[in-house]
Amino acid sequence: MKRLGEFANVGLDYHQYYNMRIGLHKDNYVDANSMTRLVDVYQPTQTSDGQGGYSTTFTKVATVWGDYRPQPQNRAIQESQLSFNRYAKLFIRYDLTISDTYQLEVEGQRFTIHSIKDVDNAHRFWEIEMYA
Question: What is the pLDDT averaged over residues 47-60?
Fold first, then answer.
């Protein structure tokens, strides 16, 4: 039986330590150095259409730095049309006020927010899952 900190001579006990993901090897690891993309933040605004109704327009409210991570894409036939769904994750600083009704523009493509999470509940970064 090996105690923590002891190493096996042959290396058979190493495998349990290699499966642990810590620091920058975690999927949701982010720091200020990884934020290399400019992200435009658009807030929904209700605009009167002049006939008693409203239409939603999006107004640019901020430009922030973010860590943009494209995810595997999806292609499907929906209602007899070919549909492409582009899924991505974005990490931004926590100090931005944002909700899932906002839209984000990264690298010239507009995304709709699916979910927003606080990374490790540390109140430092938001992890945003979004679709185009």
Answer: 89
- Find where tokens 């973010």 sit: 66
Pairing of the two strands 109-118 and 125-131: antiparallel
Q: Would you call 120 helix, strand, or coil by DSSP?
A: helix
Nearest to 68 by CA among 93, 90, 53: 90
Token pair of 3, please? Answer: 């105690």
CATH of domain 30-131: 2.40.10.270
Question: What residue ranges do the domains of the chain occupy?
Answer: 30-131
Alpha-carbon span 28 to 120, nearest angstrom: 9
DSSP letter, residue 83: E
| β-strand pairing of 54-70 with 37-48 | antiparallel
State the pLDDT at residue 72: 76
What is the pTM (predicted TM-score) of this model?
0.70
